[in-house]
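Hi L.,

As promised, Peptidase S24:
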Amino acid sequence: MKLIRICNTPRIDFYTADLTTKLELPMASTLLSAGFPSPAEDHIELKLDLNRALVKHPSATFYGRVKGSSMIEAGIAEGDIIVIDKSLEPKDGDIAVCFLDGEFTVKRISSGAEGLCLLPANSEFKPIRIAEESEFQIWGIVTYVIHKAR
């Protein structure tokens, strides 16, 4: 999967992907235990193409590289790549890329009696209430997070 940078912002770098490439990688056909080890089995038979696994709506999907730590407790860290689907209808509780008063930000959407609010997943950051006069758009819904483990 080749990424093509399309836009840099202070909080997110946006990319589009070349989805014409196909790269099938071997995938274990058994579940991998994150608890106690399971007996070793030679079940690497399936193939996985990350383009097909991560992108359901190719013309509406973008990638973003996250800057900052406001979503760390949601498993989104500095440098992570997020998969953003602009075709999905936002739902309460979704993590979304939002455009607010000239800047992009990644936050959890919360709607309630007090109106729409963007919630960080880090106690060092405060929720952001969306004022009526704000320039605001839910740009896309985060569907996957690619996190470097090493």
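The chain is about 5% helix and 45% strand.

Thanks again for sending the construct details.

K.
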